[in-house]
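Record Fructose-1,6-bisphosphatase class 1, 339 aa.
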Amino acid sequence: MKNKSLTQYLVEQQRQEGVVSAELRLLIETVARACKAISHAVGKGALGGVLGSLDSENVQGEVQKKLDVLSNEILLDANEWGGHLAAMASEEMETIHLIPNRYPKGEYLLLFDPLDGSSNIDVNVSIGTIFSVLRAPADASGREIEERDFLQPGTRQVAAGYAVYGPQTMLVLTVGNGVVGFTLDRETGAWRLTHDDIRIPEQTAEFAINMSNMRHWEMPVRRYIHECLAGKEGPLGKNYNMRWVASMVADVHRILSRGGVFMYPRDERPSGKAGKLRLMYEANPMSFIVEQAGGVAIDGEHRILDIEPTALHQRVGVVLGSREEVERVQRYHREAQQN
Ligand code: P6P
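=>
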C-alpha cells in the first residue's frame, strides 16, 4: 500500500484524535509546502545563484546568507494569506511580522528558524528549517498582536517540526500525539509517511558537542564528556562515539533516528552565559519533538519546555536526547549546585 501523504495523516489526526483543527492542518500543510520550495532552492546550490553571503546581518549579529533571507521570504509569503495565522516570528527578523490587513487573521502564531545551520550551506552539508506553532492568547482577538503574545512556555506549543535538507528531504512533525516522519517524493512532490512512530532509545553511546569550546564549559559538562571519553575503563563502562554536524536539525535528526545526546551548553564566556541556541524557534520545537519521542530536553538543570520566555530571541543552554544520558547530565548539574 502506498505510504500515507501528509494530508491524509493530518486529516486522520483531525478526525480520530481531535488533536488537529482544520486551521492547524492548513497551517502545517502550508509550512510543509514552503519547505518543499526551500528544499528546491537549496538543491540548486551554485546553479541557482543562491550561495554565499549578503552584506547584511540578522538580529543575532550573524552575517546573513542569501538562502537565509530567501527561505525567510518563502515562509512569510506562503503563510500570510491563508487566514490561519495571527502573526509570525523568525530568527531572521528583529520584530514580529503582522498579517497584512488585506488578509484575514487566524488563531495561531508561527515561529521559525527558516534555515538552520547556515555555516553549512556553502559547503554542501545538511541544513534545515525549524518551526513552532502556538495559539494567540484569547485576549489578543480584536487587538494587534504584540511580541509579548509570543512569549509562552514551550509546553503551550500545539505543533512543532523540522525539515532536513540532506540526502533525502524529510519533514519530522509532532502535533502532541507522538512523532512522525515524511520523506519528500521528488517525482510527485508529495510528503510520504515513512516513519510512523519515531522513538529515541533510552540509552546511547554517542554524544554531539562542539569540543572546541571545552575550555569554556561549566564543570558538570566537563565531567560528563570526560567520562564519555574515558570509555569502557571509565565510570560509564562503555566506549562512546562522537558526532558534530553543526546543524542542529541534522544532529537532532540523527538522535531521533538512532539515539544520542546533543549538547550546546551555556558556558563561562560572557557571550555563552545564556547559551547559543534560541529558545523560541530552536530549543522549544526540538524539545517538544524530543519529549514526544520519549527523550528528555533540559537547559542543564531544568526542562526547556517549562522555561517562561522573557524575550523573543533569548538564548538557552541545550542538552537533549536519550533519557538516561540527559538525566545523568542533569544530576551532575544538581550535584554541582549542592557543592
Ligand atoms: P557551532 C547553526 O548555526 C546553529 O545555530 C545550530 O544549528 C548548530 O547546532 C550550532 O549553531 C553550531 O554551532 O558553534 O558549532 O558552529
